[in-house]
Each structure stands twice: as C-alpha cells, then as structure tokens.
Amino acid sequence: MEAKSESDSPAEGDLAEREAAYEKFVWDNLKRNYLGNYLHGMLGMTGFRLVNAPTFLPAYLFQISGSNTIVGLGLALQQVGGIISPIFAGTKIEHRKKVMPAAVLMGSMGRLAILGIALSGWFIPNKTFAVSMPWSDPIPVNPLVWSVLFFMMMFGIFMGAQRVVFSLLMSKVIPLSRRGRLQAWRNATGGAIAAILAFVAGKYFIGPNIFGNGYSTTFVFAFVLTSLGLWALQLLLKEPEPPTVRAEGRFRDRLREFPDLIRQDKAYGYFIVVQMLATSARIATPFFILYVGQQIEMTGATLGLLSLAFLGADTLSNLLWGYMGDKTGFRLVLLLSIAGWIGATIVLMNFHSTPAIFVAFFGLGASQAGYNMAAQTMILEFGDRDDLPMRIAVSATAESLTATLGPLLGGLVADLYGYSVVFGASIGFLVAALVILYVAVGEPRKRLEA
Fold first, then answer.
1. Is residue 138 classed exposed, middle or buried when 0-12, 13-18 and 19+ CB atoms within 10 A define those classes?
2. What are phi and psi of 137, to 5 degrees?
3. Residue 55 three-state SS
4. For residue range 133-192, what is the model confidence (pLDDT) as tens digits?
5. Contacts of 121-127 spanning 24+ positions with Cβ under 8 A
6. What is the phi/psi pair of residue 329, to 5°?
7. Which helix (H) or strand (E) holds 42?
8. Which neighbouring-strand residues pair with 130?
C-alpha cells in the first residue's frame, strides 16, 4: 500500500489557509528567488549551450573518430540517458515538500560529466588499438572515443533528471506571469556570454589547440560556468512547502499511470506528439556543422563565427520569445519557432556562401531557443499542480525516446545517402509538428485563467 502524505486530505478551510500562505511566501521571496533563478540560468545555460550547441561537441567527436555514425551514436547515447531518469526523478520528488537537495545532487552530477569529457581529452590518448576477440578478427578500439561517449551518456542521465527537478522548482517559486520574462533575460544574458565565449573558444582555444586540446579547454570553461550558476541558486533560493503533495508511489505504479495522465487531457496528449516530432527533427542537428564543412573551409575561426551566430541568435530572440509568451501564452511562440526552424534548414540546404550559412545558423539558434522556452513553459500549464512532476517526466521521457534513435539513424543515413536526405527528413517532422500544434493544441493558459 502506498504511503500517504500528511497533507493528502486537509480540511477545506485549512487547505485554503495553506494555499494563501503558500502564495504569500512566493510573492514575499520573489526578488530573492528571481535573482537566484536568473543567475543559475544565466551561468548554467551559458555552459550548457557550449556543450549542446550543434558545433563544438559534434565537431570534436568527428575529429577524434572520423565517423558520422559515431557522432550520431554520441548524441543518441546522450538521449538514452534521458529516457528513464526523468520518470525516476519524478517519483523521487513528487511526494517531497522540498526538492532543492535533489536539484543540487542531480545538477552536480551533470556538471561532473562535462568535466569528464574535458579531462578525457587531456589524459586519454587519441589512438586506435586492435583488441583481439576469440570469436572474430581484432576489433579497432579508440579509448578516447569511448570515454567521451560514456560521459555523454552520463550527462544525458543527469540532465534528464535535472530537467524535472529544476522545472518543478521554478514552478514553485516563480509566478506564472513572471516566468517568460525571467527566462527571457537569463537566456539572453547567458546566451550573450556563451556567444562571445564560443567565438573566443573557436578562435583562441580550438584553433591553436591551447593547452594541448582546445576542445577540452572549452568544456572546462563550460563546467566552471555551470557550477557557479548552481552555487548561486543554492545560496539564494528560498523554497516554499506546497499545501498538498502526491503520496509517495512506486516507480512501476507511476509508469502504469502514464496512459491515464495523457488520456485525461487530449490537448496535453497532442502536445507530447508535437514534442516528439520536433525532437525527431533534431536528427539533423549534429550534422549541420559537418555539412557546412563540405561547403566552405572549416577553420577554428569559422567554427567560432557560426557558434556565435547560433548562440547570439539565442541571446537576442529570447527577449522576444519571453515577453511574447508572457503576453500571449507560449503556443504562439511554439508555432513561430517551429516555422522558423523549417525556414532556416531550407536556407542551409540551398545557399552555401558564408553570409547565407551565418543567417541559417542564426535562424536555427533563434528557432530552437523559442522551441525550448515554449515547450518547457507550456508543460507547466497543463493540469493540476500535484501531477506536475509526472507531467514533466512524461514530456522529458517522450522527447528522449525520439531523440535517442534520431541522431544514430541520422549518422547512418548521412553515411549512406548524404546530408540532404537527413535534412529533408527533419523538415518533414517539423511540418507535421506544426500542423498538429495548430489544429489540435489550444493555449493552455486560457484554461488556467478561465
């Protein structure tokens, strides 16, 4: 039998008092919590952008492996890590009144995975060895490649868990009417720092191969910045205790509840389909920079310039997306960002001058920034507060399922048929997501305000 929370069935008057006290706590501590979330997002997302941008890590994997398939495998392993961990994190925090300790633990482990990628480049030789097998011919093995792949999977595991915990934490301390502008400013300033650092990293770290491995130097910077952001949040945030929480449940029981959770709200179900299609479209993301390398000369400066375009667009567009989302709801942001994603991919496929490629990467950065902000915020606006951890977990798991096979299949298809086929498939997924979003998913905020 499941353990019951002491606040499962409070008297109606008592519950109203708890709700009022909870709301008062949120507004009384808003400035402090706003600053903590801002610093965490600004510094943390700066570092994570350097790792997740479709430039440095794919280019590094390709450099040490020489294989599109390995690049796809790395991105797939990163997503594999995020399939189960969101559900596990949701079951571990949904019954807790305070989730900050879990946030610190999951966040710290994810940051250590970035450090592992960096240290691998410095301490593991980039050499291929023939490993004898009794049942087959010797198999070539590169320890550096497999070390990077391992830490990418670890990064995915803890980022999947972190996504649930930190999304829940923000929903507890930041009112609905303030979330868009918070994300706008923290993403904009974090993106500005990341864009500048990306250009510096490409030109001055990776180009001259500083400290023996410019990529490792870049990832160490990412580790330091993300760690500073986590420390700032830990020091500043004051977390309220919600009036009610779910009873503690077993992992397998929560898995069985997923279909009911989706069936209860058809718009939420279609929203998950949109997420899965858009995530499937990322089949092309790690190959954008490799495709560009076939069209123009790929130097460290060029890599930095295109990273600047992608991350700079993230910076500028977040202000637009955040304020638009607060004013109109995030459904419109999601529609416009998916449409822009389609347009930018078409430009990249058909125009091969440096200015056109810069514009394409700028469009991709702006569009994916809008998608990420809208998807992460809309999920907080469906259904009841007590079910929020599981809704976030369902959403994160659904995205990870489709994102796992996407890059791996993309690498195989790129090796067999070329990058254009991969990009065409990406556009197809995005068009399908756009149609379903427009037809079947209304603005969830209108239901909350009704």
1. exposed
2. -65, 160
3. coil
4. 555 555 667 889 899 999 988 988 888 788 778 877 887 888 777 777 777 777 778 777
5. 121/60, 121/148, 121/213, 121/215, 121/216, 121/219, 122/211, 122/212, 122/213, 122/216, 126/64
6. 95, 160
7. helix 30-52
8. 140
